[in-house]
Amino acid sequence: MSELASKQQLRMSFVRWALVTVPAVLLLGFLSGSSVPAGADNGWYMMLAKPALTPPDWVFPVAWTILYVLMGIALAIVLNARGARDRGLAIGLFVAQLAANLVWNPLFFGAHRVMLAFGVIVVMFALALAATILFGRIRAAAAWLMVPYLAWICFAGALTWGIHRLNPDADGLVPGAVSTQIAL
User: Fold this and answer.
1) What's the CA gap between 35 and 38, in Å, rounded?
2) Domains within the chain, CATH numbers bracketed
């Protein structure tokens, strides 16, 4: 039985993957983002001096929603490419960079660890770039869907570095900052 799947079957397979991956990535991002107060809801963050390029608070959830949807679609494309060379490695790198992504928010906003959060961004970028390169070898569209995310990671890294430069004592700005604001 060496039947090839029809275009309709391949399309439906992709849709099934996307119906899982997009909500899963969005949900994980939402859970990470809501695990600690962020933006104007975070007293520690409000006390920080911020770089001039810091966008208004409303931009972050809009940008992350769009980025998580694009990432979920990219993952679905790769998952749907059964038999593709390096598919497993590409998926593993994607999962690893997503794990780093999900750690950033609680680390920065909850634990107030600006430089450690910056280090996570560097790792996240390296893993996301590697995943994007492998995605491109599997399906070019999947790699292109990751490009806005890579750009945003660079922007987030610049903002985080700028916050560190403007607030070298950020870890101790709030009394009791040794404890975290992470909601369990």
Assistant:
1) 9
2) 18-169 (1.20.1260.100)
